[in-house]
Amino acid sequence: MTPRTLYRSSRAFSPNGLRAVCLAHDETGARHLETWELTGTGPRRRLRTPLGKDLPLTQCVALDDGRALLSWHEPGGAQRIDLYDRTGARRPLGPCPAPLRLLPGLDLPGWIATAITYGPDEHSTVYRVGDDEPWLTPVTRLPGRLGGAAPVGSFLAVTAVVDGTPTPLRIDPDRVTPLTPDGTGARHVLSSRAGRVLLAADTGAGLRLAVASDSGVRLLDGPGTPDTTVTPLALDPTGDLVAVAVNRGAGAELALYDGESGVLRQVTAPPGVLGPEAAWTHRGLWLAYSGPDRPTVFGWAPPGADALRTAPAQTGRHPARLERLPGAEGPVEAVVYGPDWRDGTPLVIALHGGPDRHWTLGFDPLLQTFADAGIAVIAPNQRGSTGYGRAHADAIRGAWGGPDLADLRALRAHVDETRGPHAPRPAVHGSSYGAFLALLATAADPDGWSGCVAVAPFTSVPALYADAPTPTRNLIDRLVGHGDVDDALGPRDLLRLAPRIRTGVLLLHGRLDETIPVSQSRALAHRLIDAGHGHVTYREPADRGHAALNTLPGTAQPREITDFLTRPDPLRGASTGQGHRPLLAAVAHH
């Protein structure tokens, strides 16, 4: 039996919108480069060639002629670019400056892709990528970081961000000129085959649009409300309509927006995640789509269609449903998988990272694995999650582990009350920020949880800020992670709170973590031991980074986690004594 695809990453459409490329990851861990032709009767896969090894930080570019470019990083950080022909034959182009961002090329001879680097001097360099020597040629150098970008025939439309302010620019091979006469605040850039450029800025209450063409610039009011996030996906071939994903909480809707009339026409789409990669040609609208029961595919809406067509659900996958459950100050939406959590089945409350993230109805291999094991899953979007308006997301600014922890505690109490005193207590699972929040929850309610799985946690915001690399510190600053929560639990420092944690803990942290240093988990593990905690297991995969958890079905990590989550609750039934091993031997060598 052919292994099933778990997800498709590094997705990209060709400049003419008639081809696509991606990396397909299957349940055995194999990775394949896939190229697709987007025909008048639907997507057709033209190539599936094995890559044979892990290629970290991969980027793909689809060429109009069916070839594909692939950029990847070697161990140690060196970046390389390979060119694949239509048969899958690989031709290494060579090393390149790192980190390098790869974009589609321009409609000029020998310009198969565009590359952008951003240096420590806070300047960006734009390169032409060709298939003959010299294959990498600098074109221009600009102050600031280049954000949204799109090829428009023979020029590149970009936004240059200097001191936090985006400025739209037009980059021709021989000059750089303003794309609009004044700043629009735009961060999204789309283009059409008619040569029009759409610039979109999120105002917090919808989109503000600017359409640039040879005849000038038109400013338009875009769709959206304060409780939605609208993502522009693609311009139609004439440049008159824009396809948008209207994201509301965990769900998303597809719509076509006419900027002149202000009419927003819905296109029916199954529940899931839409885009952000998309293309619109005379053959229809194409976009990446992922649903709870199907990994990412290329969805298609033919011209004039009122519904998105997608591949059928994978056999044996679990559907997801949305429920509104009590939080501390109002309902919280949650994505729910598996058996009815109200029964006495094992239950895990899964927490997302970020904290500026949210659970969606997209395919999630780990939550599918939990459901496969008979575990009910509640994945809440507590306060601090994006997707529910600024007030919901900003509730934890300066108070990480405050309102979000309060929502989690209220949810746990509701679950416990609903399930009754004889049902096993819920377990909690979290990654990154979610792992920090999960451990805080076990300290806040020491007898409320049957276990805690924490993947790549940190011990406190001050400790993380002192140890973390610059991008992580910048994220903490941007999301206002600094600040104390004034309540009975006190400062959110897991080293201080460790003696309060009594439930079994499974810690995982990749030794190569580039976001949260592994020293954070090592310190927490030792502190739990020193506090007399006898039920801790620590795992430190030597070949993993921040994505410390290998989610492939049947591999050691998911098995250990599901075994941990399904063991009998020691306070509500006989304990087998399995699932917890002393930590001392596991960390003595660090």
Characterization of the model:
The strands form eight sheets. Strands 28-29-31-30-32-33-34-35 form an eight-stranded mixed sheet, with helices on both faces. It has a four-stranded antiparallel sheet with strand order 1-2-3-4, with no helix packed on it. The protein is globular, with a radius of gyration of 25 Å. The two termini are 42 Å apart. With 590 residues, the protein is of the alpha+beta class. The protein has ten helices and 35 strands.
| β-strand amount | 35-45%
Question: Which runs of at least 5 residues are low in confidence (pLDDT < 50)?
Answer: 574-590
Morphology: globular
Rg is 25 Å
Q: How far is the N terminus from the C terminus? A: 42 Å
Count, helices: 10
Number of β-strand runs = 35
Mean pLDDT rating: 88
Strand order of the largest sheet: 28-29-31-30-32-33-34-35
Largest sheet: 8 strands, mixed
SSE-based structural type: alpha+beta
Helical content class: 10-25%
